[in-house]
Amino acid sequence: MKKKLGAKPLILPMPALLVGTYSDDGTPNAMTAAWAAVCCHRPFCVGVAVRQSRKTFANVEFKKAFTLNVPNTSLARAVDYLGIVSGAQEPGKLEIAKLETVAASKVDAPIITQCPVNMECQLIQTLPLGSHSWFVGQVAEVQVSEEVMDSDGVIDTKSLDPLIYITTDSKYYTVGESVGQAFSMGKTLSR
Amino acid sequence: MKKKLGAKPLILPMPALLVGTYSDDGTPNAMTAAWAAVCCHRPFCVGVAVRQSRKTFANVEFKKAFTLNVPNTSLARAVDYLGIVSGAQEPGKLEIAKLETVAASKVDAPIITQCPVNMECQLIQTLPLGSHSWFVGQVAEVQVSEEVMDSDGVIDTKSLDPLIYITTDSKYYTVGESVGQAFSMGKTLSR
Description:
Two copies of one chain form a homodimer. Chain A has 191 residues and is mostly beta strands. Chain A has a single domain (14-188), classed as Electron Transport, Fmn-binding Protein, Chain A (Pnp Oxidase, Chain A, Roll), CATH 2.30.110.10. Chain A contains four helices and 13 strands. At the A-B interface, β1, β2, β5, β6 and α2 of A face β1, β2, β5, β6 and α2 of B.
């Protein structure tokens, strides 16, 4: 039996990413975002929802650029802190979270050094929807820590150890066991 | 050390959802989508990227509605199949995947009965980006299987057992262990 719960945004699971931006005076900022996704293949685009009151919102509008950074589970406390506190109230939030930044190589935004995967994004569309706008960035470059890649340059999921966010219990999780290979296991189904 | 990999859309992790739609003649269809996210809080909106060639694309444009359905890991093989095969080539794909549908309560789209969470979405924006368009739906209703809720009506993550997709190794995973409570564990950080 199904039960109706009203309107709730239950995407399960979600990532727990850090959005890196520079303010107009060049101060780096980072905000946690679970509301993000790939939104196009050609060109490669990613989108992220940002609330108008966030410092990140003003920064993206000003610099037309942002980074999406994939943290590992060891950064969970810092990730949570960066989601609770806005750079509008605490400009030193990155320092408090003990996170370091370096300028991205192709866009005017900072990457978070400790995050093993960093996507550099150029803003190409802004979609105002209400409390949030959906910022679409074209991916210009990706940087990945050598420590999470195997000898063939393939990113190893266990080494990467990405942080998962489950919105229904508001908890962070690790990735569990593999249940199969995509674009493969479904091929056994047929009429 | 970081290594540059060029432009890649590395959101990690991703969900593995089923997008439910009706065609113009009322035939139910479902497509797997890992490229989906919440994109607004007020009103509650979710977005999903769909390639123009997909039957789902025509269906959403025609009916102005879709559902996002959260499968559990027992449905991994069916989910993978629904991602490989388009309803444009195989109108009977739901039958082959042994999935059943029922009409959503508030929008003109089918929900996938076996998925424990179903979001009913009314199309409010379409953002063409290139190979894909980003469909934004306002969430009209959510239906959840009673089996995945505890006695207080809270969705239990272990019972829900949502499917995770990791794009870098193209594998499906289970949710692992909890690493902390969101909007809480970060509060211990301060100057």
